[in-house]
Amino acid sequence: MRRSLVVLSVVTLLVACGSETAPSSTADGKKYVAAIMTSYRSSNARNAFTPTEARCITEAAVDAVGIDALRAAKVQPSDLASGSAFQTLGNKLSNADNDKVSAAIVDAHCIDVGTVLLRSGAGDGAAFSQIAKAKVRCVFRRLGVPVAAQRAFADSLLGLARSDAEFTASFRKEAVLLRALTACKVDPSQIK
Hints:
Elements: H1 2-18, H2 27-41, H3 45-48, H4 51-72, H5 77-80, H6 85-92, H7 95-107, H8 113-119, H9 133-143, H10 147-157, H11 162-172, H12 174-183
Helix pairs in contact: 2-4, 4-7, 7-10, 8-9, 9-12, 10-11
């Protein structure tokens, strides 16, 4: 009897702990997600993110800060339905909440930063004109792997000024760039 009571208590505790609904799954959360997705569908972000990737980072952002923090920052779903929804979040949320959103985007593993950069046209510049497209893809995918680069990318989605410095710093280490070039069999002299 005592053993079954202990087992029942443990099961009840596990169910209670695991049953918390993600903010993005609530009725209000779905309104925020729908608004950001409306913004996504009417923007150039469609060229960089697939709908699945966009929904994933949107849900990660809403889940990271929660509905109460969005309301406290005076963010309404209608604020996010047009323009750059993530930059609107970046402007309205506190620094601490921006940090939560940025970290959540990275932790959710929704996107491959290198692939998104390539879809955005970053690899089409004159600097890479002497390199085969497959090798350019390889380099960007490898450069998008470091957590610092992913965090800088997430910060750039939010329009945070620190993103440029973070992104530059993440690649400033010559060893990171050289490892990517070597792994992709690109001669550094080909980059103009």
